[in-house]
Amino acid sequence: MECDKQFVLINQKTPAETPNDWWNEIRRCRKKPCPYNVIELQQSEFSNWGEYLKNLYVATCPFPTRPVRVLSFAQAKPRFAMIKEAYGGSYKSCVITKKKGQSKIPCEIGHLYAAPIPLPPKKHADVTHLAKFLKPYAKEFYASLPTDSSTADADSE
Questions:
Q1: 84 and 117 fall within a common domain
Q2: Which residues of the chain form beta strands (DSSP E)?
Q3: Does residue 1 register a pLDDT over 60?
Q4: Average pLDDT, stretch 58-85?
Q5: Of 55, 77, 95, 129, which is the most exposed, with the fewest CB atoms less than 10 Å away?
Q6: Backbone phi and psi for residue 38, each to the nearest 5 degrees, phi listed first
Q7: pTM for the complete prediction?
Q8: 100 within a domain of the structure (yes/no)
Q9: Domain range holding 140?
């Protein structure tokens, strides 16, 4: 959504049981000036930006972010973030990207997930237990969620 304050228009008490129910509620919650345009994304449309950019930027933030009052970037110094911890005073520069020889940017951005994310067995058991309170179409949705059998051994130990 364009602005967080527009979430007020969504009825939080709507009996939504699946993602489709929420998409429909968001479409219905505003009539004027026009209904919200809900774009239903598929899992293949989520890209792994973290993996793509990790070779370009330093692994951790080089400065504490809480005291920062002014953050500035300059075209003359593209590897640096200029920060001020108070509104008065001078800027402090911090390196945020690796040197050109150290960074190798991959040609293609990979997908974040190759398949639907499986639920751990304990969570899947909880979901199936609570499914008795749902409508039939919602029961089918939650029954079709994949489970992760590889963590079953780790949970039982």
A1: no
A2: 70-74, 77-84, 92-95
A3: no
A4: 91
A5: 129
A6: -90, 125
A7: 0.60
A8: no
A9: 113-148
